[in-house]
Design goal:
This protein has helices spanning about 5-15, 55-60, 170-205, 210-230, 230-235, 240-265, 270-275, 275-285, 285-295, 300-325, 335-355, 360-495, 500-515, 515-550, 560-570, 595-615, 650-655, 670-680; strands at about 30, 35-40, 45-50, 65, 70-75, 80-90, 95-100, 105-110, 120-125, 140-145, 150-160, 165, 165-170, 555-560, 580-585, 590-595, 625-630, 635-640, 685-690, 695-705. It contains 18 helices and 20 strands. A hairpin with a 3-residue loop joins β19 and β20. Helices cover about 55% and strands about 15% of the residues. Strands 1, 3, 4, 6, 8, 9 and 11 form a seven-stranded mixed sheet that branches. A five-stranded mixed sheet has the order 15-17-18-20-19, with helices on one face. α3 packs parallel to α12 (about 360-495), α4 (about 210-230) runs antiparallel to α6 and α9 (about 285-295) packs antiparallel against α10 (about 300-325). The chain is α+β, with helices and mostly antiparallel strands and about 700 residues long. Bound molecules: adenosine-5'-diphosphate and magnesium ion. Magnesium ion binds near residues 609 and 668. Magnesium ion binds near residues 608, 668 and 672.
C-alpha cells in the first residue's frame, strides 16, 4: 500500500552507523569496461546540520565513510554532502554518475573544471523536470575526466523525504542501457495496473457495484504512488510542478490508505458482517487525513510519522479483518487475505532490504511494485469471484422467481379454468333462465290465447244453448201435435162417402192426391227426425265447448280424460279433411287427478299438429288419425298416431323448443309442443315421440292416475 513508510521505518531504528576507515582505498577506479560501478558502499558523507555551509568550508570537514551497501540517511533537515574520489584508468573521458533516488528534492553536483574551479550542476524535485540533462527520473550527471586523471566530486543533497543513496558510475551506454531496462520493467508494472484499472472500471460501469469504484481508485492511487516514488509522475504528469511532485509523495500514500480502507469496507461487507470492524475501518481513515493536513501545514516529519504509524496499524487490521470475515462465512474474503498477505510480504522484503538483512538488488528494490501488482491482480480475482457469487445468487433468485412465475401461471391457468367453468355455468344458468323466460312467455301467450278462446267458446256455447234448447224442447210437443193432426186427418178419411159429402170428399181426395199426402207424412217424419238429430248434435257441440272452456280452471280435479279428448276432437272436427279417417279408441280408464283444462290443451295441441301433418301431405291424399286411450298399472296411456308427413331427426330434436316451427307465418307459433311439454312436466307425466319422416308420427302420453299434479 503505502511505500514510503517502510523506508522511514527503517530510519527510526537506523541512522548511519559510522565506521572510520581509510580513504585511499575508497578511490573509485574507472577502467575500460562496460560494467557499472556501484559506488554506493564507498561514499563518504558529511552532515551539515546548519544546512548553510558552502563547499569551500565543507572540503576540509571530516567525511565519514558509509558502511552500508546503500547509504540510508533518513528524514532530516540537514544538508548531506557526499564525497567521491575518482581515478580514471580507462582511455575514455566521458562517464555518467547515476543517483537512483527520484524523490530527492535538492541535489547539487560539484566537480572541478579544467581551471581547477568547482562547477555546480543543480537538479532536484524543486526544479522543473526539463532542467535535467538526461530525461529520466534518476539523477544523472556528466562526469568528464581525462584518462589517467584523479578527481574528487561532491554531491550536496537535501530532501524532505528520507534519503537513500544508490549511486552508480558507468559509461554513457551502460548507464542509459540500465535506465532503459528499468523503464521496461516499470512499463510492465504500469501496464498491468492500467489494465486492471480499466478492466474493473468497465465492470463497475456494467454492474454498478461500488466495490469496483473503490478498487479502481485504490489501484490508481497505488499506481500513482509507486510511479511517484520512481519519479515517473514528475517526469510525465507534472514535470513543471516541483510542488506537486513533492505533495504527491506525501499525500498519495495516505490516499492509498484511505481508498484501501473504503475498498475493504465495501468488498467484505463489513457493515453487514461486523459493525465494530466497520467503524474501526472508518476510524483508521482519520490518521491518514491528519497526515495530509500536517503536510499541508509543513510538518513534514509529523505528517510522515503519523502516516507510517497508522500504516502499521492498518496493515494488521487489514490482515485480521478478512480472517474474521472469512470465519463468518464470506468466502471472497480469502482472496482478500491472500492478496493482502502477498503485498505485506512484498513490504517485508522491502523493509528487510532497507534493514540490509536482504541485499539491495533489482528484486528487493522492486518487491513493493511486484507485491502490489500481484496484490491488485489477486484482488481482481477476488472481485471476479464475487461476481460469480453474485451471479449464482442472481441465478438462484432467478430460478426462484421463475418457479414463482410458473406457480403463478399455474394459479392463473387454474383460475382461468375455474373462471371458464363459472362462465359456462353462468351461461348455462342464463340459458336456462332464458328458456324458462321463453317458456313463461310462451305460457303467457298460450294462456292468453286459451283464455280468450275459452271465453269465446263459453260465450258461443251459451249463445247456442238457448235457441237449441228452444228447438230440442219444441220438437217433442211439435211431433205430438203433428201426430194429433195426422190422427185428425185420418178421421176425416174414414168418413163414409155419401151424396151429401161425396163431392166435398172427392175434392179432399183430389187435394190429397195432389199434395201426395202419403209422401208428406213420411217426409214430415224425416224432417222432424232431421231437426231432432241436428239439435242433438248441436247440443253435443255445446257440451264439448263447455267442457273445453274449463281450461282456465286452476283447481285439480279428478276427471275422465276420455271426455276431454272427445270434446277436443269435436272442436277440431272442421279441420279434418274428407279423405282423413279418424279412429277413436277410447278404452276404460281410471279417473285422473289433473288440471283438466290444461290436459285438454295438451290434446288440442297434439291433435291439431297431427291433423296439420296429415293435411300437409301431397295431393291432399288424406290419412289416418288414431286416438287411443288405455290403462295399465294405474297408468293411463293416450296414444295419438297419425300418418302425416312425419318429422326429420332435426325437427324432432327441436320439437319442444319454444318458437320452433316449420310452419309458415300465421300457420304456427312454435309454442304448441313447448306448452305440451311444460304441462306434461307439471303433471309428473311423460311424453314419448316416435316419428319417421314421410311416414308419420306416434306420440304417447303417459299419465299417473292418482298422483297429484303440481300446479304450474
Ligand atoms: P307449431 O305447430 O306452431 O309449428 P309446435 O310446437 O306445435 O308448433 O310444433 C313444432 C313443430 O313440430 C311443427 O312446426 C312441426 O314441424 C313439428 N310437428 C309437431 N307435431 C308433428 C306431427 N304430428 N307430425 C309432424 N310434425 C310435427
Ligand atoms: Mg302446433
Amino acid at each position: 500500500m503505502n511505500s514510503n513508510y517502510t523506508k522511514y521505518y527503517v530510519l527510526l531504528t537506523l541512522i548511519l552507523i559510522v565506521i572510520s576507515s581509510s580513504f585511499a582505498s575508497d578511490t573509485i577506479i574507472l577502467r575500460n569496461s562496460t560494467r557499472l560501478i556501484d559506488v554506493s558502499s564507498s561514499i563518504h558523507i558529511y552532515e551539515d546540520a546548519t544546512a548553510e555551509l558552502p563547499l569551500e568550508l565543507i572540503i576540509d570537514k571530516q567525511f565519514i565513510r558509509t558502511n552500508k551497501k546503500v547509504a540510508n540517511l533518513g528524514i532530516s533537515k540537514s544538508v548531506f554532502w557526499v564525497k567521491i574520489p575518482i581515478k580514471n584508468m580507462s582511455n575514455q573521458n566521458h562517464f555518467l554518475i547515476n543517483l537512483s533516488v527520484p524523490t530527492i528534492d535538492f541535489i547539487e553536483f560539484y566537480y572541478l573544471d579544467k581551471n581547477n574551479k568547482y562547477l555546480v550542476n543543480e537538479m532536484g524535485e524543486h526544479l522543473p523536470f526539463n532542467n535535467r540533462i538526461y530525461d529520466d527520473p534518476d539523477y544523472i550527471f556528466d562526469l568528464i575526466i581525462s584518462p589517467g586523471e584523479s578527481k574528487v566530486v561532491y554531491f550536496k543533497i537535501a530532501s524532505k523525504e528520507g534519503i537513500q543513496l544508490p549511486i552508480k558510475i558507468g559509461t554513457e551506454g551502460t548507464i542509459l542501457g540500465q535506465i532503459k531496462n528499468k523503464g521496461i520493467l516499470s512499463g510492465i508494472y504500469f501496464g498491468i495496473m492500467l489494465v486492471i484499472i480499466f478492466y474493473n472500471l468497465f465492470i463497475y460501469f456494467s454492474i454498478k457495484d461500488n466495490s469496483y469504484l473503490y478498487y479502481v481508485s485504490y489501484v490508481l492511487l497505488i499506481l500513482l504512488t509507486q510511479t511517484s516514488l520512481q519519479g515517473y509522475t514528475f517526469q510525465f504528469l507534472w514535470p513543471n510542478s516541483p510542488v506537486l511532485a513533492q505533495t504527491s509523495l506525501f499525500t498519495l500514500p495516505s490516499l492509498v490508505g484511505i481508498s484501501a480502507m473504503l475498498f475493504m469496507n465495501s468488498f467484505l461487507h463489513l457493515k453487514y458482517f461486523s459493525k465494530t470492524l466497520h467503524f474501526i475501518g472508518l476510524g483508521l481513515i482519520l490518521p491518514y487525513l491528519l497526515s495530509i493536513v500536517l503536510f499541508l501545514l509543513n510538518y513534514f516529519k509529523a505528517s510522515q510519522v503519523s502516516m507510517e504509524i497508522n500504516a502499521m496499524i492498518v496493515s494488521v487490521y487489514m490482515l485480521v479483518t478478512p480472517i474474521i470475515i472469512l470465519r463468518r462465512g464470506f468466502k471472497p474474503a480469502k482472496f482478500f487475505l491472500l492478496a493482502w498477505s502477498v503485498f505485506l510480504i512484498g513490504v517485508c522484503i522491502y523493509v528487510l532490504k532497507d534493514l540490509e538483512i536482504l541485499p539491495f538488488n533489482n528484486f528487493t528494490r522492486y518487491t513493493m511494485q511486484i507485491g502490489s501488482a500481484i496484490e491488485t491482480v489477486l484482488l481482481s480475482f477476488a472481485l471476479a469471484d464475487r461476481i460469480n457469487i453474485l451471479k449464482k445468487e442472481k441465478e438462484m433468485s432467478q430460478a426462484l422467481t421463475l418457479e414463482a412465475l410458473k406457480e403463478n401461471e399455474k394459479l392463473i391457468t387454474e383460475q382461468n379454468i375455474q373462471l371458464e367453468k363459472n362462465v359456462e355455468e353462468r351461461t348455462l344458468e342464463l340459458k336456462k333462465t332464458l328458456s324458462s323466460l321463453k317458456d313463461t312467455q310462451a305460457q303467457l301467450v298460450s294462456a292468453e290465447k286459451m283464455a280468450s278462446l275459452g271465453q269465446l267458446t263459453a260465450g258461443i256455447a251459451h249463445e247456442i244453448n238457448n235457441p237449441i234448447n228452444f228447438v230440442s224442447a219444441n220438437i217433442k210437443p211439435l211431433k205430438m201435435d203433428i201426430d194429433d193432426v195426422l190422427e185428425l186427418v185420418k178421421k176425416y178419411e174414414t168418413i163414409p162417402k155419401n151424396d151429401t159429402t161425396i163431392n166435398e170428399l172427392k175434392k179432399i181426395d183430389e187435394f190429397k192426391q195432389k199434395i201426395d199426402f202419403e209422401y208428406i207424412k213420411k217426409e214430415m217424419q224425416l224432417l222432424l227426425n232431421g231437426i231432432d238429430d241436428g239439435a242433438r248434435r248441436t247440443a253435443e257441440i255445446v257440451y264439448g265447448l263447455k267442457n273445453f272452456s274449463r281450461l282456465d280452471e286452476t283447481e285439480i280435479k279428478e276427471v275422465n280424460i276420455n271426455e276431454g279428448i272427445q270434446s277436443t276432437l269435436l272442436l277440431l272436427n272442421s279441420s279434418v279433411q274428407n279423405h282423413t279417417e279418424v279412429i277413436v279408441n277410447l278404452g276404460e280408464i281410471p279417473l285422473i287427478e289433473c288440471l283438466p283444462g290444461k290436459l285438454n290443451q295438451v290434446f288440442m295441441n297434439l291433435l291439431s299438429n297431427a291433423i296439420f301433418a296429415i293435411n300437409s301431405k301431397k295431393n291432399n291424399s288424406g290419412g289416418k288419425l288414431i286416438i287411443s286411450s288405455y290403462s295399465s298399472n294405474s297408468q293411463v296411456f293416450v296414444l295419438i298416431e297419425d300418418t302425416g308427413i312425419g318429422m326429420t331427426e332435426e325437427v324432432k330434436n327441436k320439437l319442444f323448443e319454444p318458437f320452433f316451427t316449420t310452419k309458415g307465418v300465421g300457420e304456427g307459433t312454435g309454442l304448441g309442443m313447448s306448452i305440451v311439454f311444460k304441462i306434461i312436466e307439471s303433471h309428473g307425466a311423460k311424453i314419448e315421440v316416435e316419428s319417421e319422416h314421410g311416414v308419420g308420427t306416434k306420440i304417447l302420453v303417459i299419465l299417473n292416475a292418482k298422483i297429484a299434479a303440481n300446479r304450474s
